[in-house]
Amino acid sequence: MSSQPPPFRRVVRLVLSCGTVAAGALLTACFGGDDDSAPVAVPTAEELKAACPALTGQTILARAIGLASGNATVASAVFVPAAPQAVSGTTTTPATPDYCKVLGTIAPVDSAAQLINFQLNLPTTWNGKAVQYGGAGLNGTLTTGLAPLTNAAPDDPLPLALGYATLGTDSGHQASAFAASEPGAFLLNDEMLANYAFASYKKVKDVAVNVLQAFYKVSLSRMYYVGGSEGGREALTVAQRFPNDYDGVVSTVPAIGWTGLAHSFLRNQLPQFGDWLDAAKIPVIAKAVSDICDGLDGLVDGVINNYLVCQPRVSLQGLRCLGGADTGPACLSDAELATETASHTPYAFSFALANGVNSYPGWWYGHEDSPDVLGRSVMNFWFTGNAAPTVPPTPGVNATQWLYASNFIRYGIARDANHDLRTYNPNHFTARIQQFSALIDATNPDLSAFFARGGKLIMRANAADRAISPQMAIDYFNAVTARVGQATMDQSARLYVAPSSTHLGNAISVTDRTAVPTMADLLAPLDRWVTDNQAPPDAIVQTVKATVPPFTLQASRPMCRYPNYPRYVGGDRLQAASYSCTQSTP
Hints:
Blueprint: E1 11-13, E2 39-41, H1 45-51, E3 59-60, E4 72-80, E5 86-88, E6 91-93, E7 99-106, E8 116-123, E9 129-133, E10 165-169, H2 190-216, E11 222-228, H3 230-241, E12 248-252, H4 258-269, H5 282-293, H6 307-310, H7 334-342, E13 347-348, E14 359-360, H8 378-384, H9 400-414, H10 430-440, H11 448-452, E15 456-462, H12 470-484, H13 486-492, E16 493-498, H14 523-532, E17 539-545, E18 553-561, E19 564-568, E20 579-583
Parallel strand pairs: 9-10, 9-11, 11-12, 12-15, 15-16
Antiparallel strand pairs: 1-2, 3-4, 4-7, 5-6, 7-8, 8-10, 13-14, 16-18, 17-18, 19-20
């Protein structure tokens, strides 16, 4: 470890003039010093190492948090020495620098609500910026801020190693308190629901800023929010609700409209109580779609790049079993065809949700049998499961869509754990659905306040996503464009579509089963855009690399700015230079 300060660590004029706060003191006492003009020396790395344990036990008063809350408490602050990159088998664990690991809690207002847990990682060599990590699914487990970002390549440094302070939360509930089949039970508590929907992310950010300033003695220069799936929804949520708090957000495969998504999940699952779509049929579906769409990008390689042109061309009627009854894994029964086809059509409400939204778009066809980064066949994991749905859901056996639909609607909408969703009618819950949507759906297209203060937005949709419809990200992006205008969007926002990519960012060729490039760093282009006004390129190179040193590049391919797709123009199909971003027009 070097004790040399980074280049910007110099004597500066600070908002704060207090010194290191003693253990047990109130951090809010440090703010508004009586001599704001007095120059203060920023602590060196060695001084920060020594100061780390003193954060333990400190309190951030509720008045320093921008939303109704109890006090926050730093439960522990421990200096963690730098650790080198480590390799175990085919897995590489990235290097970490010297940092102060801060764990804490934020007390609720409602005594029946659970605590908000948070983690804040403070590098001793700090770049003056922070990255708030988004969560996943229904949250309930602590997001540590120490993991690689979504779609990171195995040799990408962690944000912490780049000098960012990082932070994350469990969003105000602990999944361990609930049965594995009932992770949504927390939604019965109004404060815990609000914390999951939006409030916990603002609260944790406010607490983190207090701790950062007390520790480094200098104000934060940039705050970013980066997340995928549920975390992608959170990133859009903070840009919409708290435009003055964040300088930029990365929203990957965002669960923008949980209300519509949960109802679409239910629509997909209810027919499978009677005729389960056998997971053994997934490769047959994938091949049929590939046969129709593979060559639309100029290259027959088992990869569907021309995502928009593909969709209206697909018909699975050629897979119909003789007579319409299920005769085995090589064909689809009439009931299975109806279920699969319905999933590719919008789910419509008879009333409007928040921000005038009244439907959720259907999923796209393509790469149904690709495994995600955890090795799970995406259509199997999300859509079919390994058996027909059960009541209550059976985690690891039933489709994940059923687990989420069952929990969101029973606990968030019906507010009755015993509500039988096989008889559920959304028209009987109109007011509650609209109230729920107003809390949780990140569909407000008015980002004018966020953009006006220089905020930047980068979104990514994955074409082979079986969790989130990629069309939802496009619909939202278009709605924002309609609200703020194309000129503002060109200055402030980008949407990229990753063809063939699954929800978590993996993909393979349908024909030869080789890996397709899906890895791409979006934090660096966001930071350059915010800091240097350098807009991201219209094509970002995606890669696939060996997972251990020397991280050999196996293939690359461009991820194009919507509505473009990578069209093959000749040359080595494994090289990004062999593709040109071309407009995809259905």
